[in-house]
Amino acid sequence: MINITKDEFNSAVTKSGYPKPSEDQYNSFAAELRGNWKLHSKDLLAMFFANVLHESRGLQSKREENPPHDYNTVQAWFQQVDKELQKQYPQNKYFGRGYLQLSWIGNYREASEAIFPNDKLKLVKDPDLIARDESVAWKTAFWFWMKNVNRHVCCFPSSIKRINPTEETKSQIDSRISIYKKVVDAFDVDAIMKKDGCNCLKELKDNAKS
């Protein structure tokens, strides 16, 4: 089992240019790391944490600012269950929340099913719980990473592609990379920017928004 000390955690945040995090933020992070997520590589944890810091402005924001989408409009690609739920809870807004900015009702439903097996619609009914509850903010971040990112990455740029494949500008990509280099220094691991045969960074920047 990997471990990140409080000093490593705080150093990663402050070296990235953000204020020192709270005791509760570290304790909630550490509790999830010791939990059932099976994230056993410190290299991958550094990638996870760098993306968390970028998405949350250094753990300062758990609600998406100025959402670019109308997350409450039923989309053609929604699963049928999510189309019905969107109609059932029209007052709820499923914009980005938590430390990896969980978005869209389908992700809220799937995260809720995984995290709250005894109340499988908990986050659909109360989406803002992710922003209000420190533990839930970390749970949803780890859930999203393990479901959608962890097993698919070969380098740090590939993690960005899994999280935001088409929504990033070049400056946002550079910001994530800059933070990542600070995190690997704090965690005392090597930066993994490219693997043999990997063109992830070039593909990211070629497809970046202007």
Automatic annotation (TrEMBL):
InterPro entries: Glyco_hydro_19_cat (IPR000726), Lysozyme-like_dom_sf (IPR023346). The keyword Disulfide bond applies. Pfam families: Glyco_hydro_19. Residues 35-171 form the Glycoside hydrolase family 19 catalytic domain. GO terms for molecular function: chitinase activity. SUPFAM superfamilies: Lysozyme-like. One of its GO terms (biological process) is cell wall macromolecule catabolic process. The keyword Disulfide bond applies. Keywords: Disulfide bond, Plant defense. It comes from the Eukaryota. CDD domains: chitinase_GH19. PANTHER family: CHITINASE 12 (PTHR22595:SF79), CHITINASE-RELATED (PTHR22595). This is Chitinase 5.
